[in-house]
Specification:
11 strands; alpha+beta; single chain
Length: about 300
């Protein structure tokens, strides 16, 4: 039996734009993504009797192939033609669930990276990312991590310069958001507010954190139901009043994040938000994953 433990970092959308609807029914996306130091822990026990299953201690998370981590393991075994039958995937969840921060996708990506190392399959990061696209739209990005521009369904990735030193504060409201409902609302909207993606790319190239933060935007914010939009806007206002350079919702939400240039301002924002919200986190940007990178 062999085992390894890996970090599965959360993902933030510095921008999220929808360019249109594709012939296959999916939406054409354009997003600037960033991995951060808020991480799940994924422990793989290859050869542990009991079949391929996940465990997390959260009763509402499935342990079969409907869990993206298990789906990733099955996809890896199929793609590499391996014959092992037993794998226990132990998940220590720290990333909020159903929060727009790719917790499940990052767990799946960690499984792909970990199995690649444990079995000596020798797949390149790009091959693992292509395999991840079979599991979920965010998995290819989570395989690679860092700062990246994502297009298509999220599987077409271009690395971008690392963010300048900064701090993120993440806050998840108490409600959940239906991703399909948001896409339907966007489809019905007569007017679309858009992020300045090219401005964000230029700010990254120049290392201009303030210019980047001022251009962060997520198109889903504009089509939220009014009661949800009020809560999202309230959190953004709190972050900005605490000194954030900019704030936005990540993914399909509801997690909101603020981008700070100073740690002490971010810490003060965390304390302020924790007066009203239970899931508030401080995190730092991470670079792209090194091949085979893990915790132990």
């Amino acid at each position: 039996m062999s085992q390894t433990t890996l970090a599965a970092p959360a993902k933030l959308n510095l921008t999220l734009d929808i360019l249109g609807t594709r012939p296959d029914g999916y939406h054409e996306m354009e997003m600037v993504m960033q991995s951060v130091s808020l991480c799940d822990e994924v422990r793989l026990h290859l050869g542990f009797p009991g079949g391929i299953r996940a465990e997390s201690g959260l009763r509402y998370l499935p342990n079969d192939r409907s869990n993206l981590a298990v789906a990733a393991a099955l996809a890896f075994r199929r793609a590499t033609g391996q014959s092992w039958q037993d794998l226990r995937i132990s998940l220590t969840k720290r990333i909020p669930v159903c929060a727009g921060t790719a917790g499940g996708s990052s767990d799946a990506a960690a499984v792909l990276r970990g199995l690649n190392a444990l079995t000596g399959a020798g797949l390149s990061p790009q091959e693992l990312a292509r395999l991840g696209a079979e599991v979920g739209s965010d998995v290819p990005y989570c395989v690679l991590g860092g700062t990246a521009l994502a297009r298509g369904r999220g599987e077409l990735l271009s690395p971008l310069p690392d963010l300048p030193p900064c701090v993120f504060v993440l806050c998840k409201p108490r409600f959940s958001i239906s991703t399909p409902a948001l896409f339907r609302a966007w489809d019905k909207a007569k007017r679309h507010l858009r992020p300045d993606t090219q401005g964000v790319l230029a700010a990254l190239a120049a290392g201009d954190l303030a210019a980047l933060a001022q251009r962060m935007f997520n198109v889903f914010e504009a089509v939220l139901p009014p009661h949800q939009r009020r809560d999202i806007e309230g959190i953004k206002t709190t972050l900005l009043q605490a000194g954030a350079l900019g704030a936005a919702m990540s993914g399909s939400g509801p997690t909101v994040f603020g981008l700070f240039s100073r740690e002490e301002l971010a810490q003060a924002a965390v304390h302020r938000l924790r007066e009203d919200y239970s899931e508030v986190f401080l995190a730092h940007p991470l670079p792209a994953h090194a091949p085979g990178e893990g915790l132990v």
